[in-house]
Amino acid sequence: MWNFETTLRWTSGTTGAAGCPGKPDVTVSAPPEFGGEAGRWTPEDLLVSAIESCLMMTTLNVAQRQKLELKGYASKATGRMEKTAEGLRFSGVEVAIEVTVSDPALADKAVKTVQIAEKYCPVSNGVKFPVHVVATAKVG
Amino acid sequence: MWNFETTLRWTSGTTGAAGCPGKPDVTVSAPPEFGGEAGRWTPEDLLVSAIESCLMMTTLNVAQRQKLELKGYASKATGRMEKTAEGLRFSGVEVAIEVTVSDPALADKAVKTVQIAEKYCPVSNGVKFPVHVVATAKVG
Question: How far lies B135's CA from each of A13, A15, A56, A93, B58, in Å?
């Protein structure tokens, strides 16, 4: 079993200091549409980034087990939140992942590696809404 | 509908730069137990902090609607991840919230405000595992 501990301290308005022992604080605020400070990470951003970054860590882990050398990895993610009868709810997250390999012959294996990671990623498997991953491989 | 966009770029090892347009990057890494760099936010930390900070934003919003003036808000959260037959999975997050009010007569209302926020918080309602909130009010 693994524990992950975080802290939060309200500073002013809807802004606070999100902490994690031994790690730099992240200033968080509500989205500007909900009265928050612009230019700050929101809880919704953190959730989308948690999914996106967990997919990367899991992909790197699967690639290492498969002895697949990746030359690069980058992604973009978009989370969608909607108004429902129960309040605001996430309806889905899309993640576009581009992995780079040195040889065109490895492109298919690289895409499959991301697909395997999707099945194991603890964060994307921890959410109720669909996480849709589109993986592409480029040679470089 | 609201969209939340994030980006991620692998830098080295299991470390990457998590981005959000117009906001400072956050360096993310795998947990040290999984080969990551110590002192970095992990995807698991981001998930726990997303839940924790969304509960704060929602509480502040409910308090405002109820014309309850809060003097302070701080919390600690712990996420638990376990090995299962399907891979690593979150089994729960505990959030201990302490709100500060100026008058002892407002303590119960403050605790109820957090309980209402729990029902509306989009992030904690977006996860499959239980989020257990314990709210206390202090006077100060």
Answer: 20, 20, 35, 30, 14
Contacts of B127 in chain A (CB under 8 A): 126-128
CB contact under 8 A, B4 and A61: no
Write out chain A residues lying below 8 Å of B122, CB-based.
44, 81, 87-90
Please, what is the Cα angle at B112 between B119 and B140, to 5 degrees?
A: 130
Instruction: State the ipTM, two decimals.
Output: 0.98
Nearest CB to A56 within list B8, B33, B70: B8
Q: Taking CA atoms, what residue in B is nearest to A27?
A: B24
Q: How far is B137 from chain A (nearest CA, A)?
A: 15
Name the residue among A89, A70, A92, A69 with its Cα closest to residue A79: A92
Two tokens, residue A107: 């492109």
- Neighbouring CB atoms inside 10 A of B50's CB total 32
Query: Domain B43-139 belongs to what architecture?
Result: 2-Layer Sandwich (3.30)
What's the 3-state SS for B13-60? CCEEEEEECCEEEEEEECCHHHCCCCCCECHHHHHHHHHHHHHHHHHH
pLDDT in tens, B95-134: 999 999 999 999 999 999 999 999 999 999 999 999 999 9
Question: Domain spans of chain A?
Answer: 1-41, 43-139
- A25-47 pLDDT, tens digit each: 999 999 999 999 999 999 999 99
CA distance A139 to A106: 9
